[in-house]
Design goal:
Layout lengths: L9 E14 L5 E14 H44 L3 H36 L4 E3 H14 L8 E3 L5 E4 L2 H18 L7 E7 L5 E7 L6 H4 L17 H11 L3 E11 L2 E11 L3 E3 L13
Parallel strand pairs: 4-6
Antiparallel strand pairs: 1-2, 3-5, 5-10, 6-7, 7-9, 8-9
Helix pairs in contact: 1-2, 2-6, 3-4, 4-6
Protein name: histidine kinase
Pfam families: HATPase_c, HisKA
EC number: 2.7.13.3
């Protein structure tokens, strides 16, 4: 075992035979036991593959169920809307409103489940393309804020000038909007409760971070953040972060969660940070120089 690494579990299959005959130089023969190791595999790889296969099967089944639910659900919503037009009693109208709200919630969950199949199709068919990181994140953040300026307050700090990353723009928008929506749900009411920033590490890896001053996540929640259908809320389908991870993986990026401290005007504030690190980085051409752009 290498220093700093956890013990590795191995699965080994062996084959033992006692019927191997060796011919001697003087015409004699003797029986010899032979032990052959024919298979050796890291158990962690096997467990990961089995887990992936189970999740894929669960996803296919869930998508099929969601597809069957969608049409009857639409009929329920339409019938309830027609019924609501005829109701005058406040109690009955309140009950009708409850039906509408819960039907809309089921519709959202159904669409998110079906979204997995769409994302899979996009992942297989949409190539990565170079995009300017600071400009792309700035536009996505501005569009997100414009939908609800009173609630969607935050700050954007670009720090990756002239940097391109290989990532589909629509996919990046989807990842960031999901992270910002999650942050909005749990962050405080301060103007600096949400921070978006880009960065380039000393070893040349570009990243974008979505930070908010929400309460820390429980360890049991943190361990399963990016798994499908996992959520700490009963009203959530638990698919948002899973889709983010799938999109990042498709473009050679990774996404992780950290509990970090940010220096703000009101002091050093702890918060939750989701960080997307891009694997492929391109330096945009700036002023003319004697050197060509280098792709890392």
């Amino acid at each position: 075992m290498q220093p700093g690494h956890s013990p590795m579990g191995l699965r080994a299959r062996t084959w033992l035979t006692t019927h191997h005959t060796l011919q001697g130089s003087r015409g004699g023969s003797e029986m010899m036991d032979v032990l052959c190791v024919v298979f050796l595999q890291d158990l962690r790889e096997m467990e990961a593959r089995l887990r992936t296969e189970k999740l894929a099967a669960m996803g296919r089944m869930s998508a099929a169920v969601a597809h069957e639910i969608r049409n009857p659900l639409a009929a329920i919503m339409q019938a309830n809307a027609l019924l609501d037009e005829e109701l005058t009693d406040p109690v009955q109208r309140r009950l009708s409103q409850m039906v509408k709200q819960n039907a809309e919630r089921l519709t959202r969950i159904t669409e998110e489940v079906l979204d997995i199949a769409r994302v899979r199709h996009q992942i297989d068919n949409v190539p990565s393309s170079p995009i300017a990181l600071d400009e792309s994140v700035s536009q996505i953040f501005a569009d997100w804020q414009a939908q609800d300026p009173q609630r969607r307050r935050g700050q954007f700090a670009p720090d990756a000038p002239k940097v391109q990353v290989n990532f589909d723009l629509d996919h990046l928008r989807r990842v960031l909007v999901n992270l910002m929506d999650n942050a909005l749900r749990y962050m405080g009411a301060h103007a600096d409760s949400l921070h978006i920033r880009t960065d380039v590490s000393p070893d040349g890896l570009a990243s974008v971070q979505v930070w908010s001053d929400g309460a820390p996540l429980e360890k049991s929640v943190e361990q399963h953040l990016f798994e499908p259908f996992f959520s700490s809320e009963s009203r959530s389908s638990g698919l948002g972060l899973y889709i983010c991870r799938e999109l990042c993986s498709r473009h050679g990026a990774n996404i992780r969660y950290e509990r970090t401290t940010l220096a703000l005007q009101r002091g050093d504030i702890e918060g939750n940070a989701f960080i997307v690190t891009f694997r492929n980085l391109l330096q945009l051409p700036g002023t003319p120089s004697l050197f060509d752009t280098i792709m890392v």
